[in-house]
Design goal:
The protein has 279 residues and is of the alpha/beta class. It folds into two domains: 4-129, Rhodanese-like domain (Oxidized Rhodanese, domain 1), CATH 3.40.250.10; 158-268, Oxidized Rhodanese, domain 1 (3-Layer(aba) Sandwich). The chain contains eleven helices and nine strands. The protein has helices at 7-16, 37-42, 53-56, 73-82, 102-111, 123-129, 158-167, 176-180, 214-223, 243-253, 264-268; strands spanning 4-5, 22-26, 49-50, 90-94, 117-120, 169-172, 197-198, 234-237, 259-260. Strands 1-5-4-2-3 form a five-stranded parallel β-sheet. Helix 10 (243-253) links the parallel strand 8 and strand 9. Helix 5 packs across helix 10 (243-253).
Length: 279
């Protein structure tokens, strides 16, 4: 299944579709805010529904669960139906730049068993640059009837992470300075999971915020120790399971299957577990 959809293809599909055949999700979000709803109201892809990452794409628990635990399947199903998603809907997610937040919706809906979920390549800037119009105000779609089948993509539990770091490849999608422990803006400890490999997800994008071609992504991940042949398990972590989903999208484009560690550094660093620093 394709990961991406171009601006031109989305515009064509929207023009040709009956209501409900295409659902577009606006997932503008940034670590520490401000919330993206105000930006959404000022201008979004026509028909796009706003998705709140903190409340709809994550649950809330103790710090030892991480900052963005996966939502309960029944809660995700209720949200997806509110967004207007049906059993055969094409779902397209985007955000304000690079799809670093929108990838959480992409991965989560694929994990929930939806068949056709895409990221708008280049996100909202690509839509605007192509000369397509924006719509203002809130969009409230007709409710959908999708059924969630949780667990359709692999995940790692806390007690499985060290094993993958030792026997496979555990990629850390955070910025290099956070991986090295030079800065830590939100979590209680600085550094990284021992054995993990620094792989900032922003390096999967070109200067326009589009994903690199598949062959360049394959070369990048091969240099980080990832085998497209599946010779060793591959998993991805980040701060709280958001940008790790973006790295999983890049891996999927490259033809590599990988698991998400949803708790990521925000969970690991809230437990009495070893911490590594440096390069």
């Amino acid at each position: 299944m394709s990961v991406l959809i171009t601006v031109e293809e989305l515009a064509r599909r929207q023009a040709a579709a009956d209501a409900g055949d295409v659902v577009v999700l606006d997932v503008r979000w940034a670590l520490g805010g401000p919330p993206g709803h105000g930006e959404y109201l000022r201008g979004h892809v026509p028909g796009a529904v706003y998705v709140d990452l903190d409340s709809e794409l994550a649950a809330h628990g103790a710090p030892t669960d991480g900052r963005h635990p996966l939502p309960a399947p029944e809660a995700l199903q209720a949200s997806a139906r509110r967004w207007g998603i049906g059993e055969d809907t094409l779902v397209v997610a985007y955000d304000g730049a690079g799809n670093l937040a929108a990838a959480r919706a992409w991965w989560l809906l694929r994990w929930a068993g939806l068949r056709d979920v895409r990221l708008l390549d280049g996100a909202l800037p690509a839509w605007v640059a192509a000369g397509h119009p924006l719509e203002t105000g809130e969009v409230v779609p007709t409710a959908g009837d999708v059924t969630v089948h949780a667990g359709s993509l692999p995940t790692l539990a806390l007690d499985e992470v060290a094993g993958v770091a030792a026997s496979g490849v555990l990629l850390d999608a955070r910025a290099g300075e956070r991986y090295r422990g030079e800065v830590e803006p939100v979590d209680p400890k600085a550094g990284h999971i021992p054995g993990s490999v620094s792989a900032p997800t922003t390096e999967n994008l070109d200067d326009d915020g589009r994903f690199l071609p598949a062959e360049r992504l394959r070369a990048r991940f091969a240099a980080l120790g990832v085998s497209a042949a599946g010779e060793a398990p591959v998993a991805v972590s980040c701060g709280s399971g958001v940008t790790a989903a973006h790295e999983l999208a890049a891996l999927a484009i490259a033809g590599v299957d990988a698991a998400l560690y949803p708790g990521s550094w925000s969970q690991w660093s809230n437990h009495d577990l070893p911490v590594a620093t440096g390069g």
